[in-house]
Write a structure and sequence with these properties.
single chain
Length: 47
């Protein structure tokens, strides 16, 4: 969980420098969390 949050924060900060609209930044952050959620579900059988 901490790793996912850290990854998303890093992506969010890096990309928000390029995205001036606050709504776009929020959507981007949410999309990042959703992507990692899907990735975690896909990797669950490996645990």
């Amino acid at each position: 969980m901490i790793g996912r949050a850290t990854f998303c924060n890093a992506e969010y900060i890096a990309t928000s420098l390029l995205v001036s609209d606050r709504i776009d930044r929020i959507n981007l952050f949410n999309a990042c969390l959703e992507y990692l959620n899907d990735l975690t579900v896909a990797l669950e059988p490996c645990y």
